[in-house]
Design brief:
heterotrimer; A alpha+beta (about 150); B alpha/beta (about 900); C alpha/beta (about 425); A: about 150 residues; Glutaredoxin; 4-stranded mixed sheet; 4 strands; elongated; B: about 900 residues; alpha/beta; 6-stranded mixed β-barrel; 37 strands; globular
């Protein structure tokens, strides 16, 4: 879907800023907001690029840099941390050969930290593109990643 | 208002105004430390330093956002407050570069100020780790730098850009500890929406935003900016005979301390190496230096042999009132002709000829500071934010206060961002648009019947002409949807007081006078003139074009618009000047070149003008100049026109002389000498007086500027009370008929200046522009203005920073037209009209509608006026610079 | 004594949450119908009488909040209802349970609340990461509209309201009501300075009522059965039930809706199955990251808004995080401070730089070469300063757990 089509689904009110940014980002195969999208939003909402960029960089779900097809959000908030999220994150780094905030060379995965996902009863938890994986241990990581690779 | 009694540190303070604790303290000289507060913007409350204690309330409260209440007892300091302020300060210092002695804000830094007041714990400060990595300084802007390492994220720059400048180029990026002030996308500030006005720089409390290579002046001189007709008051900082800084005068009612990029950073032309320093004589096709005696003798001799109809003078809208007075006196009293004119012919001549008919006076009716209290502002034919930036700020401020903004412009200019109603009408259809709006007003009974009955005449004839302007016809001819025309009309007529501003989009047409009459019609119809915050407000372009007109630099009037054909007036001036004066109107600027070509005018004396670039159908001008027997140019640089001269005389710039300028709101203001002129450059009036004296004329023995002012006062009724000493602190607005008169804020309050005392409504017919697009020349060319350059760039072209921001011309063209012609962004094209051609880059955007393209005339390498047509308005003789037909060919 | 009592989660596991017909069959939208046949002021009175307190964490009287909002600016052309579904407090997931399993209950509560204050428009501000909840709510709103529950003249009254979902995008701070409003207006999540409060000047300057999901989802029951019925549940000062979310070192982590007045012992041992792997209890963190640590001496204190205060604890969002004997309290504290640092918006210096200083301190990157007191005392001093000067509740948060640590676990540092 084109950018203007997406924009036209929202009325051009400033209040719709976050909804529009979500929609544009979801429409991008690399899950990010590129410069031209930001410019289009600025024009559509009759504001300036600096304000749109300010919003896009404030919220952690948005990215202004290209990411992978699958965004892996690993939780390291107090409960998950207590339940061993560090070792999960280390395993993810190892399996994917990336550091936090980086994307794999084949542009399939981006590894990020996220705030508490509200799934504390199954900590430690990670979310891949909206799907929750809980009660994780190091052993499970490899197979979960493999599932995505074979899609 | 009820009185509010508070106690700050046991000091009783009584006030009847609503305000915050901080404002009350400041008004009473009680210091409360702040970093994120600035009186020009809304408070943020994030520095957490202005904490105070309030009796009866727990904890500490920020004084910048807490309103005072009757009986409040406030403590601005206590052990606890000091302790927590100190810790906050230490945290700021922990991440702030500690290099005060080399910082450009040394001794002018609010962080230093609050630290001195609060104190810090040295041991703790030294041990606090610097936890933020060093960030690169953004030095992309030619005038100032942004050093993130010194930024304390107070947000003042962001709010300034939003609330003062209305540009919104800055915002915070990222969050938490990683928060930075950013433009967008890691782009340096130069590539953002930033307009380099510098308002953020002057408000930055620390050294994060600072002017490049700034030096503190040894002294400051209060004067007026030399660029546009707003007439911002500035302080030029001088050191060793050089201008090292410029800042706005916060006390000035005109600009309240604010400046645009040219007004703040545009003065390096004053000591540019290309300044003319010596008289020049052309011999064998090139110029050689000469002495003043040599050239003045030659000029006196040549002039003496070519008086009356053989002579014409072009005075200047950039020189002072006194200069203009002397030049027109010389032309009339010594050269015996009324052939004196200046560039107003090319810009606001219709304003003078139009408003004189409808109001009796051809000047801006209201004042600049009244815009912020208008409830509606209607800007038509004015790219206000580019050409009159500070008035643009006033309009933005009005908008913030709830005013409705109506914009009518063929191009989607920057002001449209703030428009509540935008009418994109086809160039040259202003009469139709305005009359169409008036028909809506009349049909819906929204006109001000009382005003029309009591204060106007000509209503019936005017109403008759309405029948041509039904909504469908209006919409069809102008291209503006009917609903939008209706909305604009309703808002302007009912959401009053409504203020109308206009500029070249109205005047530079072959029917310019009609356009101006249409403007005065709509104001009269709705009673929007003769009252505060309303009126018809033509924005004069040059810094002293108003003054040049006031001083009689026009072929049909003496100083004060006294007609040259009026026997009593002639008698008065003949007596004052001891000379016989010509009783016929002289020729206009545009007629000069035709008469020169015909061989009737043999000698031209030109001061501070550049017609080779500024006159429509410039090739015609160039041809004419070659035909002159004798051509004298007096200027500060060797302009494109000066190259055609036989003698070139070096003159002083505005920074090198005393005198007065009159800005667009009729305010006569003092300019003052700040530096010495380079080489042998002289005051313009001195030069003209010398020529006159050598020709044996009397009455040119002025010792200094004040002598001239006195003479002006005695002969010019509207300036009679504007004496030199009365405008020492602040300017005065004419009419000011005597020494006790306070000046006139807005005109036509009781009656109009016409003999009947009433304003006149005019029936108008639509006259199409002379050269519209056809199959041979299918595109309409209109002209535009840039914020960064001024007129023919004689001055701005020599300020390297401005050249860096905008280096060259480009043809603005709509994507539809670009596609049709197969043109890509940045491609070079030949733009051809029936009169000339220029080569220029293409810039594809939606500013112009399809079928219309635009160029400025700021770049000598791209002489736009070789394309434009000199089809003149019959009444005012202004050429139709705004409309001609062009075709494009790939270059 | 205290029993699990399903009021807010009455329909959990009983109905198909995607079916509005199921909800109606189970008695759904009856309360809304009843409410819209009364006068708004009567609804407000009932809420005040019920003494229902906000379930988001602050615990303000819901009825009074409604009263203020409805009275604010009687001539205002617009009032708003905002449901705060930006559940971000670590250890808390009760709102997600409600939204995923009984979304219509929330909608019904919103209709009643909107009617009470005269709000013609309601928003659900939901965090962007709650994909399932968003889907459930979108469907539920569509179905409710189709049935005529969200439209003009609902149930034949002259009241009109609609609900729109607005997404958050990853910011804990946007769960604070004033910051939420900034985010709803499309801006960066910077907290506003109060006063003015949302009831007076909220969304776009209009009076706005901001309530938590659990609070709103409790309203239908109160309207249906009455304030008196509600007051008889729970305790005198803290009536009704609360959904507790238990996580950490317990056998059966999860959510439990229990009457207020239940004790931690009952919650942890009777409902959550006791400490995992038979270990001993070391500490309980109640209220999430901005909550308080308590030890076994508090296990028998009845849980309520005020009763915990005496023990230096807060109920907060109702998150109960259990630390077994082998957990390191300093490490957990470090993780809490890291969390706050990540969520700091950066607007004010005390929080922006202060949080970083706290994290540095606890990770043993000494900021002072010579430590004057213990690490915990320094942390508390810094957090205390932050609490006094910070612009918003986030900066005022670290002191809460740190102070409780000083009381109960000072020896761990």
């Amino acid at each position: 879907m084109g950018t203007s089509e997406i924009l036209n689904k929202f009325s051009p009110e400033y209040d719709n800023m976050l909804g529009i940014l979500h929609a544009l980002q979801d429409n991008n195969p690399y899950n990010f907001l590129d410069d031209s999208d930001l410019e289009a939003v600025a024009e559509y909402l009759n504001t300036t690029l600096s304000h749109v960029y300010g919003v896009a960089t404030y919220y952690t779900m948005f990215s202004v840099k290209p990411r992978g097809k699958y965004i892996i959000r690993a939780c390291n908030s107090p409960v998950c941390n207590m339940e061993g999220s560090i070792s999960i994150i280390d395993e993810l780094k190892k399996v994917l050969s990336v550091d936090l905030g980086e994307t794999t060379k084949d542009r399939l995965f981006t590894l990020e930290l996220t705030e508490c996902l509200g799934q504390c009863d199954i900590a430690p938890v990670m979310m891949i593109n909206g799907k929750i994986y809980g009660n994780l241990d190091k052993e499970k990581i490899g197979s979960i990643i493999q599932q995505y690779k074979s899609k | 208002m009820k009185e509010i009694c508070c106690y700050i540190d046991n000091k009783k303070i009584v006030t009847s105004e609503k305000m915050t604790i901080l404002e009350l303290a400041r008004a009473n000289d009680i210091y409360i430390p702040t970093l994120c507060y600035n009186p020009d913007i809304s408070p943020s409350g994030n520095c957490r330093l202005c904490l105070v204690e309030i009796e009866g309330r727990q904890g500490q409260h920020i004084s910048c956002m807490t309103e005072i209440e009757d009986g409040m007892k406030i403590r601005t300091d206590s052990q606890e407050i000091t302790e927590i302020r100190r810790i906050t300060l230490e945290l700021i210092h922990a991440n702030h570069t500690q290099d005060c002695t080399t910082c450009s804000s040394n001794n002018n830094c609010q962080l230093q100020e609050v630290t001195a007041y609060i104190g810090v714990n040295e041991e703790r400060l030294n041990s606090l780790r610097r936890t933020r990595p060093l960030l690169k300084i953004d030095d992309s802007n030619p005038f100032f730098n942004l050093d993130h390492n010194k930024c304390i994220t107070c947000g003042i720059c962001i709010k300034t850009c939003d609330e003062v400048a209305g540009v919104n180029a800055l915002d915070y990026g990222f969050r938490g500890f990683a928060t930075v002030v950013s433009t967008c996308c890691d782009r340096p500030i130069k590539e953002s929406a930033c307009e380099s006005c510098g308002e953020c720089v002057v408000r930055c409390p620390v050294g994060a935003l600072y002017i490049k290579e700034s030096r503190l002046p040894a002294r400051e001189i209060k004067t007026v900016c030399a660029y546009c007709g707003v007439g911002c008051n500035i302080y030029l900082g001088v050191r060793d005979n050089k201008i090292v800084s410029a800042r706005g005068d916060r006390d000035s009612i005109v600009n309240k301390g604010r400046l645009c990029v040219k007004g703040r950073f545009g003065y390096s032309f004053v000591d540019h190496p290309e300044r003319l320093t010596s008289p020049l004589i052309k011999s064998n096709g090139s110029f050689r230096e000469a002495t003043w005696d040599e050239v003045l003798d030659i000029i006196a001799e040549k002039f003496s042999k070519n008086r009356k109809e053989k002579f014409a003078a072009l005075t200047s809208a950039k020189v002072t009132n006194e200069d203009n007075y002397v030049i027109q006196k010389f032309t009339r009293a010594v050269m015996g002709t009324n052939n004196i004119d200046h560039c107003a012919r090319l810009c606001h001549a219709p304003t003078v000829s139009g408003l004189v008919q409808s109001f009796g006076s051809g000047a801006m009716t209201n004042s600049i500071d009244e815009f912020t209290s208008a409830r509606t502002i209607f800007s038509i034919g004015s790219n206000t934010t580019a050409a009159h930036p500070i008035i643009g700020l006033h309009i933005k401020e009005a908008k913030r206060k709830g005013a409705k903004i109506i914009v009518a412009n063929p191009k989607e200019i920057d002001l449209c961002r703030f428009a509540d109603v935008y009418m994109q009408h086809y160039p040259g259809t202003d009469v139709v648009l305005l009359m169409g709006m008036m028909k809506v007003i009349v049909d819906e009974h929204l006109q001000d019947k009382t005003f029309i009955t009591e204060r106007c005449e000509g209503y019936d004839e005017f109403i008759e002409s309405m029948s041509n302007y039904d909504l469908d016809t209006t919409s069809r001819i102008t291209g503006v949807p009917a609903e939008i025309i209706k909305e604009a009309a309703r808002v302007y007529a009912t959401n009053t007081p409504s203020s109308l501003v206009y500029a070249m989009g109205i005047t530079q047409h072959s029917h310019g006078t009609d356009n101006v009459l249409a403007v005065s019609n709509i104001a009269l119809l709705t009673g929007n003139v003769g009252k505060a915050s309303s009126g018809v407000n033509p924005l004069r372009g040059q810094n002293n074009v108003q003054g040049a007109c006031d001083m009689g630099g026009l072929p049909n009037v003496y100083p004060g618009y006294q007609a040259v054909t009026n026997p009593e007036i002639i008698k008065k001036f003949e007596k004052a000047w001891s000379a016989e004066l010509d009783r016929e109107n002289g020729l206009t600027h545009t007629e000069y070149f035709t008469e020169i070509e015909r061989g009737n005018i043999k000698v031209l004396y030109q001061v501070g003008e550049n017609p080779v670039l500024s006159e429509a159908d410039a090739n015609h001008v160039k041809k004419a100049l070659k035909k002159l027997d004798f051509f004298v140019v007096q200027d500060i640089f060797l302009t494109e026109t000066a190259r055609y001269a036989d003698i070139v005389l070096p003159a002083c710039s505005f920074a090198e002389k005393d005198g007065t300028f009159t800005n667009t709101e009729r305010r006569v203001q003092r300019i003052r000498k700040a530096v010495n002129p380079p080489g042998d450059a002289k005051d313009d009036w001195w030069i003209t007086c010398e020529i006159a004296k050598r020709m044996g004329a009397r009455g040119f023995d002025y010792k200094n500027v004040t002598d001239i002012v006195e003479e002006i006062n005695s002969l010019t009724p509207s300036y009679a009370g504007i004496t030199y000493d009365r405008i020492e602190e602040e300017g005065l607005q004419w009419p000011c008929p005597d020494k006790n008169h306070p000046g006139t804020k807005y005109l036509h309050a009781e009656k109009f200046a016409r003999s009947s005392g009433k304003g006149k409504l005019f029936p108008l017919l639509y006259k199409a522009s002379v050269e519209l697009p056809d199959k041979d020349y299918p595109l309409l060319l209109t002209t535009d203005r840039s914020l960064y350059h001024y007129h023919t760039s004689t001055m701005t072209g020599r300020v390297s920073g401005l050249k860096e921001i905008e280096e060259s011309e480009y043809l603005r063209i709509n994507p539809e037209d670009a596609k049709k012609m197969g043109l890509k962004e940045g491609e070079m094209v030949m733009v051809k009209s029936r009169r000339g051609q220029v080569k220029v880059k293409v810039n594809v955007n939606r500013i112009c509608p399809a079928g219309v393209a635009s160029l400025t005339f700021h770049f000598p390498e791209t002489p736009t006026n070789e394309l434009t047509i000199c089809a003149v308005d019959p009444v005012s003789k202004i050429p139709e610079t705004k409309v001609c037909a062009i075709k494009l060919e790939k270059a | 004594m205290a029993r699990g009592k399903r009021i807010t989660l009455k329909n959990y596991g009983v109905i198909d949450p995607t079916s509005i017909d199921d909800y109606i069959a189970a008695g759904g939208y009856k309360a809304a119908r009843k409410a819209l046949s009364c006068k708004p002021v009567e609804i407000i009175d009932e809420m005040v009488k019920s003494s229902l307190r906000g379930r988001g964490g602050a615990g303000f009287s819901t009825g009074l909040k409604k009263k203020f909002t409805s009275e604010a600016c009687l001539r205002c052309e617009q009032k708003y209802l905002v449901c705060n579904a930006d559940e971000g407090e670590p250890g808390t997931f009760k709102d997600r349970i409600i939204m995923e399993n009984d979304p219509h209950r929330l909608i019904e509560g919103m209709i009643i609340a909107a009617y009470a204050i005269g709000a013609s428009k309601g928003f659900i501000y939901i965090r962007g990461e709650y994909y399932n909840s968003i889907r459930m709510l979108q469907e539920a709103i569509a179905n409710a509209s189709k049935k005529g529950f969200l439209c003009e003249d609902i149930f034949g009254s002259s009241f009109t309201t609609e609900i729109e979902i607005k997404l958050g995008a990853g910011s804990y701070l946007c769960g604070e009501e004033l910051t939420l409003l900034e985010s709803l207006e499309g801006k960066r999540g910077y907290p506003r300075i109060k006063p003015p409060f949302p009831a007076e000047k909220g969304l776009n300057g209009f009076p706005t009522l901001v309530n938590n999901v659990e609070t709103l989802a409790t309203i239908p029951a109160i309207i249906e059965y009455g304030a008196q019925w509600y007051n008889e549940i729970g305790t005198e000062n803290s009536p009704g039930t609360k959904i507790f979310t238990v996580s950490g070192d317990v056998e059966k982590p999860g959510f439990f809706e229990l009457e207020l007045g239940v004790t931690l012992r009952e919650l942890i041992y009777d409902f959550a199955g006791g400490i995992k792997d038979g270990k001993k209890l070391q500490a309980v963190l109640i209220g999430g990251a901005a909550g308080t640590f308590v030890d076994e001496t508090v296990l028998d204190t009845p849980i309520g808004f005020d009763t915990l205060k005496e023990k230096g604890a807060v109920l907060g969002s109702g998150a109960v995080i259990v630390l077994g004997e082998d957990k390191s309290i300093p490490e957990v504290t470090g993780s809490i401070l890291e969390f706050f640092k990540h969520e700091s918006c950066g607007k004010c210096v005390p929080c922006r730089v202060g949080m970083t200083q706290l994290v540095n301190m606890i990770h043993k990157n000494n900021t002072l070469q010579k430590r004057k007191g213990s690490l915990l005392d320094e942390l508390v001093a810094e957090a205390d300063y932050m609490a006094k000067t910070s612009l918003c509740p986030l900066g005022q948060s670290p002191i809460i757990p740190l102070r409780s640590l000083q009381r109960y676990f000072a020896d761990r540092f």
